[in-house]
Amino acid sequence: MNNKNYKLAIVGATGLVGRTALKVLEEKNLPISEYVFFASSRSKGKELTFQGKKYIVRELTEDSFKEGFDFAIFSAGSETAKKYAPIAASCGCIVVDNSSAFRMDKDVPLVVPEVNPEEILNNHGIIANPNCSTIQAVLPLKALDVKYDIKRIVYSTYQAVSGAGMKGILDLENGAKGEAMQKFPHPIYNNCLPHIDVFLDNGYTKEEEKMINETRKILKKPDLKITATCVRVPVINSHSESINLEFSKPFTVQEVKETLQNYPNIILLDDVQNNVYPLATIASGHDEVYVGRIRRDESIENGLNLWVVADNVRKGAASNAIQIVEELIKSKTK
Ligand code: A2P
Asked: Taking 50 as the threshold, does the pLDDT of residue 169 lie above it?
């Protein structure tokens, strides 16, 4: 056991995920003795309060990592990650990156600690945090795949505006007052937009493609049949997902409920007689994944429907990244 105190950089500390990371870190008691907060030149010199102390935000530059860091959590988008994460890694820092820049790179582990923690130690200086919609889905999927072998997945998502950062939240709030939008291509107030991220040549969106590819990588099932429709809904925070599954093995609904209930960080909320099921307002502010509306899909053999809800900014981004850092610390102190 070593008693080293670690040094952590947060890149994108002024953004929605970065600020949430600070909140989650304040709730935990990690052996980190030094924190440095980076953002773009726009935020240089801004003050952030963390653990009751004032910190000055620094501008991220090519020299930022020369002073030496153990870990960095990046939540500053793909372009920043592509440029600066390799520089940080070359200085001996382990980067946990929230963007999609490295997720499908075969040398970069894509990790949800409840699902594939064994991948963390295969890193070469960069670990990718999956997409928010993928993270919450793969907890129940892994729990059930081990027992019943998933053959096909149909995802339909209902994603909160916080997934589009501060500007997404402002579009909903301002739209409710009749003001124009800045982030989305149509008003999100009073609407559901079947469009998250850019459209690809095959008619899918990049968000849908991310869910498909990342699920295959995390579950280590490269040929798994998956389709997805991702929809932005006028909800401030927490993503909801309808997940339809086909298994190769038979199951009972009771056994499925027990399996999910016993899985780490899943909360089963499934008592429809009393109107109990997962809701965005229940999940917001928490790190667990809520699962309910569990019922047989009677249109196929071995089919199941689930409703899965989680806080997309916490478990879908900040908290998952911090859990990865916790695992890295544990592995160093063994
Ligand atoms: P800044 O606040 O200075 O623009 P969000 O996803 O909520 O929009 O947040 C994005 C985060 O990424 C912000 O903290 C933003 O800093 C940061 N960021 C964006 N571009 C860069 C960059 N080139 N270098 C460092 N940080 C960046």
From this structure: yes
